Amino acid sequence: MMFQFTEEQKMIREMVREFTKKEVEPRDKWMDENGFDYELHKKLTQAGLMGIHLEEKYGGGGGDPVTSIIVIHEIAKGSASAALFLDANWLAADLILYHGTEAQKDKYLPQAAQGKIFAFGLTEASGGSDAAAIKSTVVPAADGGWVMNGGKAWITNSGVADYYIILAKTDPEAGAKGISAFIVPKDAEGLAIGKFEDKMGMRGSATCELAFNNLRLPADALLGQLGMGFKYAMQALDGARISIGAIAAGLSEHAMNIARSYANERVCFGKPIGKFQGIQFKFADMAAEIRAMELMTYDTAKMKAEGLRHTLEAAETKLFSGTRCTQICLECQQILGGNGYSKEFHVERFVRDAKLLEIGEGTNEILRMLIGGTVLAQK
Ligand code: CAA
Fold first, then answer.
1. Could you tell me if the CB of 88 is within 6 A of ligand 1?
2. Catalytic residue status for 361
3. 205 Cβ inside 6 Å of ligand 1
4. pTM of the predicted model, to two decimals?
């Protein structure tokens, strides 16, 4: 791979790779069957991984956006669910890092580094793709605070989060410019958390509905400027879509490794099936596509680290990686034949996990609209 990591990033990659083999991969099946794994969360915290991307002054590991992507990528090689948990956690906590006041950063970021869980609440039941059309509202209260009403759906980490970053309309007439962001603690009066969704895949990452019934918030719950929430959310998603590229690359590699072992061992017509051209061609395509995913992912992470706008590149990374990951997992299942259809060989779970990468954090259709529109507007 041409992309060069620093010595420190290489060290972190080795550390997370070991951690994943020992602590993450063995828990992936359990999470699929039982849901969110508090034990793994404890281990991620103890290993310093929950806050590895935060500055040291907040108790974090001092990592940068490339380091964060290394962590997500390596964790995804053992569990896509666990990587998604970290991605959603950082997506939410980073909104405080980028837009919070000094007081908010001092209050919340050390907690993030110590393992408190954050969730990002944008999507609503009436539709997730048209993000500016959310209906939840926040109005000023007489005491200088805020009152929130409405609800959210499909919020990753909900039900296990300590804090929610909620996007709501503060000026319903102003479209995207009437949306603001608020920090909501899990025990806020008026916050109701629904049951965990019974999902097809990514079952180790918690997902619930949220309802806000005259939820009272203090004045300092507002995050950043009034009316800027939509832009903050879109910028946050630009970063999160790079993480989806990393999850796709890691999950694809995990599936391909299992398929490779199988293809080298499984004998058919007198030789391992990996000796047949039909199988070899599948590995050729998969290996090339995984390398492309990695290159797009790290190149876009580098853009983010350098402070360059990466809306287009992140959308391309997510579209390509998410789509190819689903196909790679299906190909690996096909290579394993009947065994690929059995839970024992894990790949059927990967197929179920992969599909989310084409839906969450911007569907393939929304990404194509965004990319197509941008490309056609270029001179
Ligand atoms: N960076 C900075 N600014 C941005 C931006 C970005 N990436 N994207 C849009 N903006 C700005 C625009 O420049 C514009 O500002 P001005 O008016 O000042 O020019 C403003 O925001 C409005 O932009 P658009 O006109 O493009 O807004 P739109 O309503 O047409 O939105 C959309 C278009 C891109 C489709 C958007 O609705 C979108 O991204 N939808 C998908 C949402 C999504 O990904 N949801 C998944 C949430 S993830 C989740 O919820 C899971 C989880 O738990 C982690």
1. yes
2. yes
3. no
4. 0.97
